[in-house]
Amino acid sequence: MDFLRKHIEEVVELTDDEFGFIQSHFGHIQKRKHQYLVQEGDIVDKEYWVVKGCVKSYFLDDDGKEHILRFGMENWWITDYESFVKRTPSRMSIDCLEDTDLLYITYENREKLTSQMHKMERFWAKKSKNGTVAMQNRILSLLKNSAKERYDLLLEEYPSLFQRVPKKLIAAYLGVSRETLSRLHP
């Protein structure tokens, strides 16, 4: 779990005892490619941290078209946050695009940690702020940028994603057809 400690210490310093306490609140799971972390309709009680692998968060519209909200790769946190916080049925699914190794924390354990350790409250506040900024930038990009500009931004920011994720999923993330993506990236 040294990788988790390193990740947390990018935001806050920890003593060995503090990290031991934090570590005791996490669980570990491994999922195979195509296995779900969350299925639409689930009440989500876990937030996941990707140790190794890649996942996608998505929903299907009434016509069965897949819309990808986000990907999650190493060192990324992912869940259906609305369901996680509000205890409502999930409106999306999250599944593994690769065999994936994850740490998770339950809602209850996260609440305990943040109430008992100011450092972890600060850690998750920063992660939450960064996630909000990323989602805001994604929405603005979808609203104002051309498909080509969205493609170029994604390629610039996450070049490894293009090696790990099928083109049809990149297209679903960018909000374009597979054919349009082919014209953007021959």
UniProtKB/TrEMBL annotation:
Transmembrane segments: none annotated. InterPro entries: cNMP-bd_dom, cNMP-bd_dom_sf, RmlC-like_jellyroll. It comes from Flagellimonas alvinocaridis. SUPFAM superfamilies: cAMP-binding domain-like (SSF51206). Residues 32-113 form the Cyclic nucleotide-binding domain. This is Crp/Fnr family transcriptional regulator. It holds the Pfam family cNMP_binding. It comes from the Bacteria.
